[in-house]
Amino acid sequence: MDIVVLCGGLSAERDVSIASGTMAAAALRRRGHSVSLVDLFFGHEVKELPAGVSESAPDLENLRKQKSGPGRIADNIPEICNACDIVFIALHGEDGEDGKIQSLLDLIGVKYTGTGALGSAIAMDKDITKQLFLQNGIKTPRRYSEENAEFPCVVKPNARGSSVGVSIVTAEHEYPAALAEAAKYGGVIVEQYIQGRELTVGILSGRAMPVVEIIPKTGFYDYKNKYQSGMTDKVCPAEISEELATKLQREAERVFEVLKFDVYGRIDFIADDDGEVWCLEGNTLPGFTPLSLVPKAAETAGMSYDDLCETIVYESLKKYGETP
């Protein structure tokens, strides 16, 4: 099968995307597929790979200067994608998780992995996600207006991933700087801070995977703690009661349906000290780096990384009525 793995792009999660794409492309090649790893922004095959994910998001303004024209994707991307059997989307953040690339591929008739344009757009917008949670009885942290925040609170960009621009604000004097940091990435959302255990559930083909507990060694699960080796412990299966694990898995499957996900994804939760489960958000394109959570859960369930990548391809083809 001819597969194009799309990565990179002009987003704060660019380095993470290239790392994920590199891993996925290698896995699919090991399974005998013909794979091209292509940068969405530059339109060329990725040959020289970064040494790893940096501690902070890349300088996008400097990156933009390296390519002429105002476009956020290379002109040859439709042609490249049209020549393959399916596109494996390994993008993160803007242009990848917000439904834009999915819409383009839909319009030109190219098959791709994972969730479609609508579900991607819904999940990327944290305000819309929160409204859908409330309408469907899914417990989620309260949203504050910027003028009436209570402390502690969480301040974050409304439409970004990988915890870019996120701050936990414990006191009022920290609040203006947190708002300014989040505003660098567009609209801002302020919500109630929930103290508890951070737990996440991967979903594959509509079914929940083993629960993972995320335990940063310092601070919270921010960009640095997500992608730098040794910064965070990830325990899978999480050391929680069977009752709580089942509750999280069933709730994750329900969120998957409410947000109109398809094939796979990851749902993030906080379990507070009273055993209440609070849903934070859903991720349509969770990371696929060596430190990522869905591959960790798959491994616990007895599925290798290569199995996971190929399963995503085959399950995605079923959306188009094709049997691999």
What does the model show?
The protein is α+β, with helices and mostly antiparallel strands. The protein is 33% helix and 22% strand. The chain has helices at residues 14-30, 60-64, 77-82, 100-108, 117-124, 126-135, 175-183, 223-227, 242-258, 293-300, 305-318; strands spanning 2-7, 34-39, 86-89, 143-144, 153-157, 167-169, 188-192, 196-204, 207-216, 232-235, 264-272, 277-283. The chain has a 5-stranded antiparallel sheet with strand order 10-9-8-11-12. It has a 4-stranded antiparallel sheet with strand order 4-7-5-6. Strands 2-1-3 form a 3-stranded parallel sheet, covered by helices on one side. Helix 1 (14-30) packs across helix 11. The longest helix is centred in the N-terminal third of the chain and has 17 residues, at 14-30. The radius of gyration is 19 Å and the shape is globular. It starts with a strand and ends in a 6-residue tail after the last helix.
Number of helices: 11
Helix residue percentage:
25-40%
Instruction: Tell me the strand percentage band.
Output: 15-25%
Largest sheet composition: 5 strands, antiparallel
Q: What is the first-to-last residue Cα distance?
A: 10 Å
Bulk shape: globular
Multimeric organization? single chain
H/E series: EHEHHEHHHEEEHEEEHEHEEHH
In total, the number of strands is 12
Essential attributes:
single chain; 324 residues; alpha+beta; five-stranded antiparallel β-sheet; four-stranded antiparallel β-sheet
